[in-house]
Specification:
Blueprint lengths: L11 E9 L15 E10 L2 E10 L4 H11 L5 E3 L18
Parallel strand pairs: 1-4
Antiparallel strand pairs: 1-2, 2-3
InterPro entries: Tnp_ISXO2-like
Organism: termite gut metagenome
Pfam families: DDE_Tnp_IS1595 (PF12762)
């Protein structure tokens, strides 16, 4: 399903990256070549999850994740991430990066 317009996520948004695609024996984490790396952004409303955007990215980097975040999250949003160092440079664009 594809959005018909540009509707950036607003308010409280959580961003994280993950892999999907099954598990091969004896291969753990991101080393599995058959897995896809996704970055997801979830908007929370007063009643729970509002909207969500996701995108397959080639590798976890500030640039790859940043392009996605700038395209789908309002820069005034409060953005929660994990402690991955790749998010830190994005504070220049997202003042409310938690």
């Amino acid at each position: 399903m594809q959005s018909r317009g540009n509707y950036p996520l607003q308010g409280f948004v959580e961003v994280d990256e993950t892999t999907v695609g099954g598990q091969e024996e004896w291969i753990r984490g991101r080393k599995n070549i058959d897995k896809k790396l996704l970055v997801l952004a979830i908007e929370y409303s007063g009643k729970g999850i509002g909207r969500m955007y996701g995108k397959v990215i080639s590798h976890a980097s500030t640039k790859g994740v940043g392009v996605f975040m700038k395209a789908c999250i309002d820069k005034e949003s409060k953005v929660k991430t994990d402690e991955w160092v790749g998010y830190k440079p994005l504070k220049r664009h997202f003042a409310n990066l938690l």
